[in-house]
Amino acid sequence: MDYVVEMLNIRKEFAGIVANDDITLRLKRGEIHALLGENGAGKSTLMGILFGMYQADRGIIKVNGEETRISNPNVAYKLGIGMVHQHFKLVEKFTVTENMILGSEPRKGLILDIKAAAKRIEKLSQLYGLNVDPYARIEDISVGMQQRVEILKMLYRDAEVLIFDEPTAVLTPQEIQDFEKILKNLIAEGKSVILITHKLKEIKAVAHRCTIIRRGKTIGMVDVGEATEAQMAEMMVGRQISFKVDKQTSTPGEVVLRLDSLTISNNKKLTALNNFSLDVRAGEVVGIAGVEGNGQAELVEGITGLRKIESGHVWFQGKDITGMAIRDRIEQGIAHIPEDRHKRGLVLDYTLEENMILEVYHREPFSKRGLLNKPAIREYANRILESFDVRSGQGAVSVARSLSGGNQQKAIIGRELELAPDLLIAVQPTRGLDVGSIEYIHKRLIEHRDQGKAVLLVSLELEEVIQVSDRIAVVNNGELIGVVESKDTNEQEVGLMMAGVKRGGGV
Ligand SMILES: Nc1ncnc2c1ncn2[C@@H]1O[C@H](COP(=O)(O)OP(=O)(O)OP(=O)(O)O)[C@@H](O)[C@H]1O
Question: Do residues 21 and 164 both lie within one domain?
């Protein structure tokens, strides 16, 4: 059999946790091989070992049939192995070409030969249908484009085996379609791909085979053509998963949040949200649907106090909070699951327990006369971590950075729900979560609603918005296109509204 990579019986232990325990994965030349497993199952660790970021404690790695030791990522590249991480590793102020040549700058004599590099990038970009401008600055291009730069970086270094760690978690639906095409182009040119993803549909759409791991152990390998999504999900979590959200019809009460003619600018001082009005009531989930970048981020920042409102008012429980400080909004009962878990969700170098009290440390019993009450904090943190099944090496004292992405996300959601807020603003709450955790988080959001609280859900996953929300407000270009009841609509209709077509056909 022509295997380009074989990872045999791999074991890797971190302090207090066995991340990989006897995992075997074999990659055929020219295939897309999915790696599926729960949050914290050990996928990123396994790929980190293949890319030379970690050393396995036990096990063998063969590349092109030969046993090798991959002591660092440079060695991995020499063996033809490249990786795109969950969080990109690009220098924002640099251009595409400058990022590409970083560390191995081409020179003509003593002078940097940027032009030659740019030419090669352009050629590769064309060959694989990437459409990247070699002179664009990273901070000026979209996330989807940045990912293509990461792909180019691998190709520029002649990688034959390309590893992707949850590549579509940060992409918009349109970008995902483009990405799937790019994957097929890569395979057509003879590359081999390992794809970590939680999205079963995506596995069905692009992958040939799939290795499934659970709690650090290989559960099995399937031919994707012969397995259903439900079968793969069950192998992964060890129980059946319901892909439907169970909920009763909502019984909305008083208006909790009233947005009255909000106009908000973006970072470039252009109008991002224009004259936007919407009510969210107690006991209902209102979803915001829209293509990314149509004012959703500014809307959330306006409500939470992270961005100035140019005109209009935000009313919360009948009080005008338009100019209120962020801390006071939290005290009033507004909680926020932010879109970017690293920038706004967690302090990565704090422990989990410190992260769990970021909004409440000044309250009793967590502190008294300026002194922290450690046992009370630990107890509080443990309760959240247990109820949300946050898995980490050392429990509450683990540093947030050491957790897997999905477990970081679960910790944030737990922290915000524990505040029992009258208004929960959840932005992409299930990004990067496995299907079992998604099922659980959706259940908790509905429970929160059923306790008479208001939920504002912002998500790019249309299916999620329609399944979880009671009403859906569709935005396009910063304007409210319409509000529909989710039980009377479907993806096609909401999709059209997202493109600016009003209900009934008008634009
Ligand atoms: N550098 C590290 N130090 C300590 N523990 C770590 C480290 N990296 C990973 N872990 C732990 O190893 C386990 C496996 O993590 P890993 O990131 O490989 O999971 P994953 O399957 O990629 O999860 P996700 O789907 O949530 O991204 C987790 O419990 C994590 O907390």
Answer: yes
Are 220 and 284 members of one domain?
no
Average pLDDT over residues 483-487: 96
Cα(223)–Cα(229) distance, integer angstroms: 12
Per the structure block, which two tokens stand in for 39?
């949050």
Domain final residue, candidates 237, 262, 290 = 237
Q: What is the pLDDT of residues 309-350, one digit of tens each?
A: 999 999 999 999 999 999 999 999 999 999 888 888 999 999
Q: Across-strand partners of 337? A: 426
- Ligand 1 midpoint to CA 318 (Å): 44
Q: Which residue has the tokens 């306006």?
A: 302
The domain boundary, picked from 237, 267, 295, lies at 237
pLDDT digits (tens, 9 = 90+) for 96-155: 999 998 877 777 776 777 888 999 999 999 999 899 999 999 999 888 899 999 999 999
Q: What's the pLDDT score for residue 361?
A: 94
Question: Which residue out of 404, 408, 409, 437 has the highest number of ligand 1 atoms within 8 Å of its CB and is therefore the one to mutate?
Answer: 404
Range(s) of the domain holding residue 309: 242-333+422-507
Note the ipTM here: 0.98
Q: Are residues 150 and 211 in the same domain?
A: yes
Same domain, yes or no: 76 and 105: yes
CATH number at residue 180: 3.40.50.300
265 CA from centroid of ligand 1 (Å) = 38
Are 77 and 176 contained in the same domain? yes
* Atom nearest to 20 CA in ligand 1: 14
Which residue's alpha carbon is at the smallest distance from atom 19 of ligand 1?
Answer: 40
| pLDDT tens-place string over residues 30-71 | 999 999 999 999 999 999 999 999 999 999 999 999 999 999
Q: How far is the CA of 108 from the centre of ligand 1 (A)?
A: 43
- Confirm if 298 and 308 have CB atoms less than 8 A apart: no
**Pocket of ligand 1, candidates 18, 36, 45, 218: which has the most ligand atoms within 8 Å of its Cβ, to mutate?**
45
Q: Give pLDDT, residue 506.
A: 57
Determine the straight-line distance between the first and last CA of the chain, rounded to whole angstroms: 57
Q: How many Cα atoms are found within 13 Å in the side-chain-facing hemisphere of 220?
A: 12
Q: Does 346 share its domain with 367?
A: yes
Whether 147 is in the pocket of ligand 1, judged by its Cβ within 6 Å, is no
Instruction: Say how many domains are in the chain.
Output: 3
Which ligand 1 atom lies nearest to the CA of residue 41?
A: 21
5 sits in which H/E element: strand 3-14
Nearest CA to ligand 1 atom 3: 402
